Amino acid sequence: MSQPSNPLHGWQVDPGSIRTLGTGLQRPECILCEPDGTVWTADARGVMKIAADGQQTLIRQTGIADRALDAQSLVLGGSLPNGIAFNADGDILIANFGTDAIELMTRSGESRTLYREVDGQPLGKTNFVLTDSRGRIWFTVTTREVPWTKSINEKTADGYVGLIDAHGIRIVAEGFVGTNEIRLDANEEWLYVAETNARRISRLRVQPDGSLTDRQVHGPADLGGFPDGFAIDSHGNLWITLVLTERLIALTPEGEVLTLLDDGNPAALAVYEQHYQAGTTTPELMASCKGTLAPMMASIAFGGPDLKTVYLGSLAGTTLPWFRSPVAGLPLSHWRTR
Question: CA 158 from chain center: how many Å?
């Protein structure tokens, strides 16, 4: 039986069609969309809510100290919301890259820390959080290195995936090189993992009890760039942002890589590549690679009533670029249950 044609074959983003949403955002690294058109994004100051009519509301975490944003520095301190997700009640789960904690914030800002430790040890650099249809919370930790930036040059394989469920918190897979975003497929049978510092996507089979097995690399062993955030469409393609490379690619179910958008700086990337291979990268070298569209392109989300509006998040941008896709995104658990 022949496979259905992939709607992304022969398609690329038309730069002239790109529009922007929001103004004055600070480090809009992770994006959540709701069916009514509301868009939420992590912000260095808390979480920004952008209503369907464009009205912005910054929601600060009550009891969590603000931090001054230094866009050029990757050595962070204080609160820095990174990955965000809705729980079953519609409250916001936060993987806080500054406080090294998993936190819960209501939509009005009341916040509390859920976890700072696992197995009696500090969590490390909490990066991303994801909920599934059963209400379980999956999260990633990039590294436990201090400072965390050591892990970039040393390509440290101490990143892990954790799970929070009725039994508490536990590590379910480890040994990743720069664990970043994770996503579940349509049937929640596979968990995909971005290993940023290894430049690859891995996947693991999800067992009923939440354990993960059958780990394998999905697609090329080296994507030629640094996968940060990604989302899955209804065809099974992974839409992946390559941070620093400043490229949006799609990884098909068959493992083929399609370039959808390229905003990279070839000269800066060539220099960075030399330092990446030598293990001598610096924050200044990273900053020199950023593009102009979504500087330090870090995440992607499908939204709009038909899930065909694509938003791009970034580490150094102040707005959310968006465009239309020929294929709908896979709805996240909050889209299906709320």
Answer: 18
